[in-house]
Amino acid sequence: MEAWPVRGIANPNGTSCHVGSALLLLKYCLEPLASQIVADAAANAVNDDVVHVVGQFVRHHDTNVKLLFDTLRSAVEIEARDLGDVITTFMKLINYFCQLTKGDDDDEHRDTKSNLASIWNQCCNAGKVHSVLLGNVKGEDGGNAATHRKETKPRCMPVPFRVNVSSRKQLSLIDMIRDTLQPQVVKDYVWENQSNSCVEIQTSRTLVIDNLPPVWLLHIDWFAPSPDGENDFGTLCVPSKLMTHRILDTKDTSSYYELIGGVLLSQVHDEEITDERDRRHYIPLISKDSVWYMLDDDEEPQEVSEERCLELFGGVSHGEESPFRDNGETVSVRGYLLVYRDPSQCEKLSFVPDQVQNPTCIDWTLPVTFVGRRLRVQWAKGKRYDGVVTSYNETTGKHQIRYDDGDVKEYVLWKKTIEWL
């Protein structure tokens, strides 16, 4: 077999495509996490069968697919023999790794989280959002009598971040992200100190992105109903680069995110197939060294041009010529999960596994890489408290610390007396 830079998973019956797609996405698009899984498996740092079989797959691309899938089926409760949803499967796998602890039941470190959770937090779970609530109070004459405003505290951005495609016309991915961030009506919201004399309060909630993670996963939801209630999906213009300033409130017009992979949703249009799941099939697309590959239930990949990949991610509707016709069936293909990466943070991401494993490996020139690390902070009178770094604000230069007792503080870390754990 030719030594391809990427390899797929042989899956002749096609039912386990959601599992194979999730594993290939982990291997090729989340390399810091995949590298840590390999390291943990080699060093027996985590006594867990899933880590060992997935580590073997990532490192050597073990062809024992049955053992791999059977292990996931029993340990992670991923039903590998039936059709499923690739996002659900992927997040089940990630959550399983993040819940693992070091050692075994008799080990003194059995209550210590594995490094996998920290790496996931630094790579994909470091995005922050908050909400702005606006309430327009209607007076008896129908005019606005007053306005309420409230901002919530920053919280973790959902992973993956869902973008609704509810229009039947062609739009850009940037437009759909902006639509997702538009004010949404909130029904029956009760404001603090709300007067009983108010005739009506119309409340809206606007989602604001504070910062993006180094690796940004986007779920393109093609199944959101359109405003007129119809469900006739359009197409989407998916860019190879997402310019950051078009999403965030920033003056930096040079920073961007590059598309490095994703999963296509292939759907059969046949009214005789009553179960919606039986119509679906998932196909990974992976970029390696600026070359795109399609991994459709076969170890040997198919090289695809970037232009064609973007076209498939954007949607080839059933009325057009589709590359996925079988037995006369009409099939449409659309991007279902996209993976974008900030290339300026690639160097930072390469430090992640080493820093997490080695507490003495600290690079103060890369403060964002501290996110996800545990530390001990000295307070007044010599008291010390343990916590974890949950975020970094580049504007203020402060890190947010969530202590084990639930308290949250922000510090300029180099000014504090700390010990990395």
Automatic annotation (TrEMBL):
InterPro entries given in the database record: USP
Q: Upper taxonomic classification of the species?
A: Eukaryota, Sar, Stramenopiles, Ochrophyta, Bacillariophyta
- Give all residue intervals belonging to the USP domain: 7-343
Highest taxon of the lineage: Eukaryota
Name by which UniProt lists this protein: USP domain-containing protein
